[in-house]
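Section 3.1 - Work completed
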Amino acid sequence: WVQLVESGGGSVQAGGSLRLACAFFGNSDCWGDMSWHRQAPGKEREFVSRIDSFGRTSYAASVKGRFTISQDNAKNTLHLQMNSLKPNDTAMYYCKTEACTSWGKGTLVTISS
């Protein structure tokens, strides 16, 4: 079994920052290759960023240079540092374990102009 619990969402003004966290519980075989996705109101869920077990990262073009993904293997926690936030970053943010295709319930990020 796997449980992912996101936190750190909130409401900030454009230009601000937030740091999301995703706590991982369960089968350690499912930890390592992790990703963040988001879903804005009325839109489909989209990829944001991914990190693999070697620490290699990838980002959506819309967030590259503003967001940074990282993982703390000692604490089984995934992070997403989000800087220079824009109103169109407003969405529910979800973490996912790629190895076992499990999702958290999400944390809401709201950016006001």
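Second construct:
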Amino acid sequence: QVQLVESGGGLVQAGDSLRLSCAASGRTGSVTVMGWSRQAPGKEREFVAAITWNSGSTSYQDSVKGRFTISRDNAKNTVYLQMNSLKPEDTAVYYCSADYAYWGQGTQVTVSS
């Protein structure tokens, strides 16, 4: 089992920045990839970004490329999502995942125009 706890969400204005954190605990040694997904009201959950635990290779949804950066701190078992130039359409609950099998409880991000 892997436990994930997200933090860092909030209410910001368009153009602002936020950094989300996801602290992992439990059997983290078996995790291959950590990811962030989001779900806006009335929409399905969608992929945002992912990073491999060992090599640090990253991938992003096209709409966040150049604005969001995913990173990890292996010593702290923590993954981050730095979000810059936020837009109202980024408003959603953001979820952290481990191997797309374990999920956190989510953190709300609201971007006002």
